Amino acid sequence: MEIQLAVAKIAKYATSESGDTVEVVERPHGGVSVVLVDGQRSGRSAKNISNVVARKAISLLAEGVRDGAAARAAHDYLRTHRGGKVSAEMIILSVDMETGTLVISRNTQAPVLVFEHNSWRLLDEPASAIGIRPRTRPQIVELPLRPGLMAVGFSDGVWAAGENKGGRMDVLELVQSFPTTLGARAYADDILAHALQREKGRPSDDLSVVVLRVGPMAHDDVRRLSMTLPVPPRLYNTWSQS
Amino acid sequence: MEIQLAVAKIAKYATSESGDTVEVVERPHGGVSVVLVDGQRSGRSAKNISNVVARKAISLLAEGVRDGAAARAAHDYLRTHRGGKVSAEMIILSVDMETGTLVISRNTQAPVLVFEHNSWRLLDEPASAIGIRPRTRPQIVELPLRPGLMAVGFSDGVWAAGENKGGRMDVLELVQSFPTTLGARAYADDILAHALQREKGRPSDDLSVVVLRVGPMAHDDVRRLSMTLPVPPRLYNTWSQS
C-alpha cells in the first residue's frame, strides 16, 4: 500500500507566473498534506496572496495543527491583513497516518472529486472562499484510507476550462473515462492536458491539479519525491552567449 | 531546459520513522529549495530535531531569505533551544531563478557531489554541524545554471553505507559509472539502492538522497510534483478486518 501524490500546474497564457500556489508538507504525526491556493486575479498580485495564505496553512500543518483549524487560521490571517478585501480559494488534501484517513477541506466554488467504493462523486457543498466574511469555515470530509481511494482537487481555471472557447470541460465525465488502475501522476497529467486542450493551449486562467491516491501496492519502503519545473526563457536565452 | 529535483529516503532498519527530514519549498522569486536535515541519533528524537530545524530553514526560504542567512538562522535556533547540546547536519540545495544559479549550502561532514563541465567533483571543505558552537556558518558554493549541471546531497548514512558490513560504498565512483543523461529521479533511486545493498537491506542509519539537475530539455511549461510514501503495516493490517 502506498500514498501517491501528484501535482501539475501551468500559468495563465502570457504570464510568467501562476497565481496559484501548491505546497506540500510532511505531517509530524505521519502522512502528508498538500495545500492548493488560488489567489484572486492572476499574475504577481495573485501569487503574493496565494503564497502567504499557503505558507500560513502549511506552517500550521507542519506543527501538527489539525486541518480545519489550519484552514480557519489561513482565512483569519488573510482577512486581517487585507481588511476583508481580498479573497482566495483553498483546498487542503491530507493523508493522516495517525487516524488512517484522507481529509479533504474545501473553501472553493469548484468541487473536489472523490473515488470511493468503485465510483466517482463530487464534493460540492457550498463552501465560501476565504478572506472576506467573518468566521468562514471549510467544508470538511474525512474518509478512511483504503486501496483505490482517490481525491482530485483543482483550481477554478480547470473547472471552467473551455467555458469561453466553445465548450466547457466536464471533469467528472473525464475521470470516469480513465482506468481506475492509473496512478496519481497519470490522473494529474491527463486532467491538465485536457484542460489545456479545451483552452486551445492558451489558458485564460492559471490551471492547477492535485491528486491524492491510495495505491494498492508499495514496491518498497522508500519515500520518493520528484519535481520538475521549466526554466524561463529569459534565463536560458543568456546561456548561449556566455 | 527544466529543473529536476528528486528525493529518495528510507528509515534505519526496524525503526518506523526516519530521523532525517527533507522538505521542499518554492522560492518566492522563482526556483526551488530543498532542505535535508539529519538529526543527531535516530528515531523519534532525531526526527523531532530534524523537523524543527528543517521547518525553520524552509519558512525563512519561503519568505525570500537568502540561503546563507537561513542556514545561520537554523543553527542559532537549534543552539538556543537545545542549549548547544544537540547537533544536526544540514544541506540546502537551491535553484535560484533570479540569479540563475544553483546554490549549495553545507553543514555536514559528508560531501556534496557536483557534476559540472563534464566531470564530477566533491565539495568537501570542512563544514561544522549546526547546533553546537557559536556562530557556525555553512560552506556555500554557487554555480551558474547550465544544462547538465547536477548536485547530489545525502545524509551520512549513505556516505558511510557498508562501513560495518564488509565494504564502504564509494559514492563518487558510483555516480561516475552512471550515464550523464540520466534524470535526477534515476540518480536518487540508484544511489539509494546501492547504499541499501551495501547495508544488506537493513540500514544501520537513516538513508536520504537529494538530487538537483538541470535537464537539457523541457517538454512543456507544466510544473510537476510527485510523491509516494509507503503506508505503515499497522494501518493496512486493520483494513482487511473492517
Question: What tags apply to this protein structure?
Answer:
5-stranded antiparallel sheet; 11 strands; 26% helix; alpha+beta; 242 residues; 6 helices; homodimer
What this model shows, in words?
The structure is a homodimer of 242-residue chains. The first copy, chain A, has 6 helices and 11 strands. By secondary structure, chain A is α+β, with helices and mostly antiparallel strands. Chain A is globular and about 45 Å long. The N and C termini of chain A lie far apart (49 Å).
What is the secondary structure topology, with strand pairs?
The structure is a homodimer of 242-residue chains.
Chain A: E1 2-10, E2 20-26, E3 31-39, H1 43-62, H2 67-81, E4 88-96, E5 101-107, E6 112-116, E7 119-123, E8 139-144, E9 150-154, H3 156-159, H4 171-176, H5 184-198, E10 207-215, E11 223-230, H6 233-236
Question: What would a concise description of this structure say?
Answer:
Chain A has 242 residues and is α+β, with helices and mostly antiparallel strands. Chain A contains six helices and eleven strands. The radius of gyration of chain A is 18 Å and the shape is globular.
